[in-house]
Specification:
Blueprint (H helix, E strand, L loop, with lengths): L5 E4 L4 E2 L5 E5 L4 H6 L10 H8 L8 H10 L2 E5 L1 E6 L8 E5 L2 H7 L5 E4 L2 H10 L7 E4 L12 H8 L3 H5 L5
Parallel strand pairs: 3-4, 3-7, 7-8
Antiparallel strand pairs: 1-5, 2-4, 5-6
Helix pairs in contact: 2-6
Length: 172
């Protein structure tokens, strides 16, 4: 008999005081939920990509990663608030409920760009939220270890498109 899918919840958004770029994943992995950290699975190269693009060393602690988010006017969240899923694959997501992203954007009008950390995150966003006037949207290849068809170098090449966004540190 197949095990029933488990209902899981995403994290609260991780926000700098005046975020300009909101990076949206789909849903935290099992490992991320266990660690209570965004992109907590060591097989996921999200943090390595972000720090490499910013020209910085990857720090050892999650606290330093949070500081990076704050210092670069970023925000992290997930498109989905909750879902049923067995394992960590986005393809296993069922009975999904979206996060209140439009509300977050109203509360933080400084956000001008949404970056989807996978095609699946972009698909769910399009399904539940759609286009948002005046907001730039960029879809990146998934940093997940499950995205094995791309090497780190190929992923990095795509994620380097965020360089200008990370270097735009002036506040409005």
């Amino acid at each position: 008999m197949k095990e029933k899918n488990k209902r899981i919840q995403s994290f609260q958004p991780l926000l700098s005081s005046k975020p300009k770029v909101l990076i949206l994943g789909t849903m935290p992995s099992v490992k991320s939920l266990e660690q209570q950290e965004y992109y907590g699975n060591k097989q996921n190269v999200f943090w390595k990509l972000m720090f490499t693009v910013a020209g910085q060393e990857l720090p050892a602690t999650y606290a330093e990663k949070i500081t990076f988010i704050h210092n670069n006017h970023l925000a992290l969240w997930d498109v989905l608030q909750s879902c049923e899923r067995q394992g960590s694959l986005d393809s296993e997501i069922k009975e999904e409920v979206p996060n209140a992203i439009r509300q977050l954007l109203q509360e933080y009008p400084s956000i001008h760009t949404l970056v989807f950390s996978s095609q699946k995150a972009a698909q769910y966003f399009k399904k539940y939220i759609g286009q948002i006037e005046g907001i730039q949207m960029i879809t990146m290849p998934s940093p997940s270890g499950a995205n094995a068809r791309m090497s780190f170098a190929q992923k990095l090449d795509a994620w380097r498109g965020l360089t200008d966004l990370l270097q735009d540190k002036k506040t409005d």
